[in-house]
Amino acid sequence: MSGPRPTNDQLREWDRQFVWHPFTQMAEYEPMIIERASGCTLIDIDGREYLDGVSSLWCNVHGHRHPRLDAALRAQLDKVAHVTSLGQSNPTTIELARRLVEIAPDGLEHVFFSDDGATAVEVALKMAFQYWRQRAEPRPEKTTYVALGDAYHGDTIGSVSVGGVERFHSMFRPLLFDVLRLPAPNPYRPPTGLASEEVLGHCLSELERLLAAEHWRIAAMVIEPLVQGAAGMIMHPRGYLRGVRELTRKYDVLLIADEVAVGMGRTGRMFASDHEQVAPDLLCLAKGLTGGYMPLAVTLATDEIYGAFLGDYTEGKTFFHGHTYGGNPLGAAVALATLDVFEEERTLEHLGPKIARLGEHLARIAELPQVGDARQCGMIGAIELVCDKATKEPFPWEQKRGVRVCQHALGHGVWIRPLGNVLVVMPPLAVSIDELDRLCAAVEEGIRVTASDGRQG
Predict the structure, then answer these.
(1) What is this structure's pTM?
(2) Which residue from 68, 258, 420, 457 has the least number of CB within 10 angstroms?
(3) In this structure, is the dihedral angle defined by the CA atoms of residues 22, 26, 29 and 32, taken in order, positive or negative?
């Protein structure tokens, strides 16, 4: 059905009526409809401009409408838009797989394509499970997983099972499989009786205690390297990832690195695992893989894991899992262009001054009385709001403190989204120093104004 272009008011009405938005209470939803974008700027249907302070949910890397990425999509459209990965392939997708293997941590030699972060993790969980049944010396008793408290690995049933965000997942508990859960290594909120500097040793000791007792039935440990995103940007102590890798190797447990949020340069290196020279057995990527342009995800696997799926068809070793759009050529084309831009613009090399500037802003904001902690990992910034700086007591979630700060920032042309009481500062890597200054100034002012507005809910 064609007709005149809908008015802006019609679009807002239809958005409320027909679109069911994720992680959104639709009874309270107020439409914000983005029509265009350029660089780090989003432009709504009324022409208002907003600085994209969270990379369009942590996925935009080189900015919106990057000429190199736009051109790659157009060029691929002139060839073919979709080719199934079930029994077929495509030159663009093949080239992307080769490029990813070249830059990935050592030993990750094979690439399985899917659609998004949750599916990439789901693939890894199933691969680990099936691997132990089909390897040369089968270990079918290895059926469970180790995961961290407050972990977030996606919203499919398997990824929710290894997730640990109570507010997101408690409703679905009857559907989930059991996992062995360890507390997140959180230096800002250490276990009772421990100092921040003792968190590393304590958490690794707890992990070894668990692995020593239960390794016989553990297929894999799943971890968000360095930073647990949806948990509130919990930043692990230096050395934790390396310790986890050493212990999982010691006790013959696979390591799944979920780098959906922290990969593709977000931590200052291409992969978070690179910071501690860690090579996982399975590595999951999505979000920034296509620069934030297209849904595409990958699970990279070692030769050891891949080999366990090889054999005569009648042996039934095939990985019976797949997605219609897995390895889509359009997504692969823009992912290749994203990797090209990293090289051509020397993106990672130029992050140093931006990381330092973000650190300066966070250090200043950390002094505000409503801020319990301001932490950073590369181009990821997090500001945790508390009602008591000394005791670290959080604001009641019903007060929506984080939401109110973000609403203030929005009124000043800055778009960010909170994680409860934690304000996330994660602009595209292409952000300028001036834009970074503007972003942090809006957040800081929002904290000050919210603290003095007298509202309790």
Answers:
(1) 0.97
(2) 457
(3) positive
**What six digits make up the tokens of 243?**
């310790």
List, in order, residues 6 or more apart from 193 with CB less than 8 Å away: none
CB 253 within 8 A of CB 206: no
- Same domain? For 373 and 311 the reply is no
Contacts of 257 (CB under 8 A, 6+ apart): 223, 225, 271, 272, 273, 278, 280, 282, 283, 284
Distance CA 410, CA 416 (A): 8
pLDDT band at 434 (very low <50, low <70, confident <90, very high): very high
Is residue 291 domain-shared with residue 356, that is, in the same domain? no
**pLDDT at residue 105 greater than cutoff 80:** yes
Amino acid sitting at position 156:
T
Out of 286, 320, 344, pick the residue that ends a domain. 344
The answer on 226 and 112 residing in a single domain is yes
Q: Return phi, psi of residue 73, to 5°.
A: -65, -45
pLDDT in tens, 202-261: 999 999 999 999 999 999 999 999 999 999 999 999 999 999 999 999 999 999 999 999
CA quadruple 196, 197, 198, 204: dihedral positive or negative?
A: positive
Number of domains in the chain: 2
Handedness of CA 206, 212, 213, 216 (dihedral sign): positive
Q: Is 201 exposed, middle or buried (0-12, 13-18, 19+ CB in 10 A)?
A: middle
Alpha-carbon span 420 to 401, nearest angstrom: 8
Strands lying side by side in the sheet with 41-44: 34-38, 41-44, 49-52, 414-415
- At 425, which helix (H) or strand (E)? strand 422-425
